[in-house]
Amino acid sequence: MISGAGSKGIKMLKFTDSGRCVFPTDLGPVGFSWTPRGVDRLHFGPADAERVAAQLAELAPNCPPVKRPNGTAADVVKRVKAHLKGRLDSLQDVPVDLSRQSDFSRKVLQKLRRVGPGKTRTYGELAALAGRPGAARAVGRIMGANPVPLIVPCHRCVGSDGSLTGFSTEGGIWLKARLLHLEGYEPNAEYARGIAHLKRRDPKLRRVIPQVGPYRPLPDKPQPPYDTLMTAIIHQQLSVKAGRTIAGRVRALTDGSRFPQPEELLAIDEKMLRGAGLSTQKTSYVRDLAARVADGRLQLNRLRHLDDQAVIAALTEVRGIGEWSAQMHLIFHLDRLDVLPTGDLGLQNAAAKLYGLPEAATAAQLTELGEPWRPYRSMASYYLWRSLDLGGL
Questions:
Q1: Which of 108, 135, 156, 218 is deepest in the core (most CB within 10 A)?
Q2: pLDDT tens-place string over residues 315-339
């Protein structure tokens, strides 16, 4: 049993009361509740501590709020904070209360607790270890309903090919990847090589990378290349909110779930496109993109077979797509790893903060800084952009 007793050779801690609390960590606020049996809920993901507290209160209404936990609860707070700062802890001696779980669920979660930091198991492997080979889907459902993530480390459960699947707490795959990155696990071998290279060649990035987390340039649900380029054109010189609003109106000109396809867009009256919020200039841009895709001058599915410069040359033939937009398509759609957008203002500002420059880095300075990053300049750019989210260093 996990509740009240540990795995063989592990002496479990003990709780003597019940309560719930929320505390800050390097990954944001974490809340947990406990009973005399052990931790029965652990919740994190939202960036707002009040929201974590409110959600935890709904999950554990019978556990009273505690401002300053003591005893075992205080020890759990200290150790979780240390783990999320990089001082890895298996937390295997922290008791958990799984009394509401089925026998099979408890058995699966017990096996999972034996998987230490930096290690993973597939859903199928856990099913077999729990005595039900072939029950991978059932294990997936158990992971999705895990009431105590991190302490029962469902983030260490991966797909049969090592890919990351859903996560049981808010933040989804990104948070799962962040936790695994913290523990030294990176399923993408090329990304792992890139991270190791950047840490080795640049001491500044060596400090930034652990704070930012894994390299994840691609969205969880990638768009087709045509939709990506339509989005890029529509969002030019607009706030994110305004761009999303107009993009939604353009999609609504057809069935609302996708942008009008090239032939459809060309058949739409220009007045309707402008009525959706596109300027006269952007109307001409999206129509030029649609025309080139429709008549075959731009074969989007062939771009992934071209080198970076050929992709840039092909895309910049389209009115409204410049070198910067083409570079963003290379990094965030085609997953090219050695692109350095020296004209990007965010990158220039991030480099100035990280490397102590008196003002935004020039293109020439970025080019010089980027030489040691080859052939992973896209990855370095990503970490520089994300360092701005940290407030710089």
A1: 108
A2: 999 999 999 999 999 999 999 999 9
CB distance 88 to 42 below 8 Å? no
- Spell out the CATH class of 1-187: mainly alpha
21 carries an active-site annotation: no
Tell me the fold of 225-332.
Endonuclease III; domain 1 (1.10.340)
> Which H, E and C letters describe 97-123, residue by residue?
CCCCCCHHHHHHHHHHHCCCCCCCEEH
Tokens of residue 225, six digits: 């290349």
Is residue 44 within a helix (H) or strand (E), and if so which, with residue range? strand 38-44
Q: Give me the mean pLDDT over the 372-390 stretch.
A: 93
From 21, 63, 154, 157, active-site residue: 154
Q: What letter would DSSP give residue 164?
A: -
Q: What is the pLDDT of residues 114-169, one digit of tens each?
A: 999 989 999 999 999 999 999 999 999 999 999 999 999 999 999 888 888 777 77
Hey, how many other C-beta atoms are within 10 angstroms of the C-beta on 103?
Answer: 8
Could you give phi then psi for residue 33, rounded to 5 degrees? -125, 155
Segment 6-50, tens digit of pLDDT: 445 567 899 999 999 999 998 899 999 999 999 999 999 888 899
Fold type of domain 189-217+337-393: Endonuclease Iii, domain 2 (1.10.1670)
Token pair 């952007």: residue: 282
